[in-house]
């Protein structure tokens, strides 16, 4: 899917956060609900088209907000809910995501 390990990890973090949210809020068992699947598809698509790629910080600190306003609110809701829970469910992904947030935002060269 991605040529870069960092971007693949970013996509995995998105999948994990949305899965946690869907399990708790929408009682998902084996697959994501249609609403969460739509959000995941949208987020991964945006990640694939990100102009910063491996040099990117977290989306919240990015100088270019590429999400539509409605989708941005939905992903913020997921991130708020899943953020702390990720430390227990996927500690390595959570820590690496925190470290990514400390990266300096970079403009496209």
Write a structural description.
This protein is mainly alpha-helical and 109 residues long. The chain has one domain (5-101). The chain is built from 4 helices and no strands. The radius of gyration is 13 Å and the shape is globular. The model has no long low-confidence stretch (mean pLDDT 88).
Evaluate the radius of gyration: 13 Å
Shape: globular
Strand content: under 5%
Give the averaged pLDDT, no decimals. 88
Which structural category fits the helices and strands?
mainly alpha
- One letter per element, helices H and strands E, the order comes to HHHH
Count the DSSP helices: 4
Task: Name the poorly predicted regions.
Answer: none
By DSSP, the count of extended strands is: 0
Euclidean distance between termini CA atoms:
23 Å
Short descriptors:
4 helices, 0% strand
